[in-house]
């Protein structure tokens, strides 16, 4: 059972990240609400997962390989990337361009930046250390075996995050659908009483 706790911690942190609107569920829900199609919200999960997993993988690989990480450097890099994207967006803006939802690449970049900025991978370090270097079967394995375990932990973490993100995004879409039907029925009742 003691070997299971780090995995549960990794999955629990993934679920916690899925609750955070900055990591993407609000964008997925916006896609679904805007298109009136809940499947569109689920399609937004792939780029969100790619961005989050990329951020967490960087830290997991560093831990598995025994490299040092400086949180401030990661946050500065994420901030510089955000500023560069904002500058490119403002420079490339056309005056009569209609507002469109974010692209898949935009969602992946947003997810990567937010995950890096709030230290998603760094939160996993206390759970990764027992998996990669403590009294687990991994202690007999070389660094590449530890890297495999760390990447498996990233997969578990990202899967848990996606489950929670998809549940919230679909719930928001469902709530907007129900609210729309409610207000349409009120309008019909008001129209029939006139």
H and E string = HHHHHHHH
Strand tally is 0
Query: Strand portion, in percent?
Result: under 5%
Shape: flat
Helix- and strand-based class? mainly alpha
How would a crystallographer describe the biggest sheet? none
Number of domains: 1
Question: Low-confidence parts lasting 5 or more residues at pLDDT below 50?
Answer: 138-143
Oligomer: single chain
Helix content: over 70%
**Tally of individual helices:** 8
Distance between the termini: 68 Å
Backbone CA Rg: 21 Å
Name the average pLDDT.
Answer: 75
Report on the structure:
The chain is mainly α. It has one domain (5-91, 104-193). The protein is 78% helix and 0% strand. It contains eight helices and no strands. The protein has helices at residues 5-19, 25-35, 38-43, 45-64, 71-91, 104-117, 120-133, 143-193. Helix 2 packs parallel to helix 8, helix 4 packs across helix 7 and helix 7 (120-133) packs antiparallel against helix 8. It starts with a helix and ends with a helix. 32% of the residues are buried. Mean pLDDT is 75; it is low at 138-143.
Labels describing this entry:
194 residues, mainly alpha, 78% helix, flat
Question: How is the secondary structure organized here?
Answer:
Layout: H1 5-19, H2 25-35, H3 38-43, H4 45-64, H5 71-91, H6 104-117, H7 120-133, H8 143-193
């Amino acid at each position: 059972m003691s070997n299971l706790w780090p995995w549960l911690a990794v999955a629990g942190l993934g679920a916690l990240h899925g609750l955070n609107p900055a990591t993407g569920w609000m964008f997925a829900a916006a896609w679904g609400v805007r298109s009136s199609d809940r499947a569109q919200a689920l399609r937004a999960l792939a780029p969100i997962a790619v961005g989050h997993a990329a951020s967490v993988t960087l830290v997991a690989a560093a831990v598995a390989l025994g490299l040092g990480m400086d949180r401030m450097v990661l946050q500065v890099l994420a901030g510089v990337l955000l500023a560069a994207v904002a500058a490119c967006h403002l420079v490339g803006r056309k005056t009569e361009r209609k507002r469109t939802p974010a692209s898949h690449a935009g969602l992946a970049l947003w997810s990567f930046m937010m995950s890096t900025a709030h230290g998603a991978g760094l939160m996993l370090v206390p759970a990764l250390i027992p998996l990669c270097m403590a009294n687990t079967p991994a202690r007999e394995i070389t660094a590449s075996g530890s890297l495999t375990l760390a990447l498996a932990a990233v997969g578990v973490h990202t899967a848990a995050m996606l489950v929670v993100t998809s549940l919230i995004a679909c719930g928001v879409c469902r709530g907007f659908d129900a609210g729309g039907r409610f207000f349409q029925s009120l309008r019909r009742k008001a129209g029939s009483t006139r």
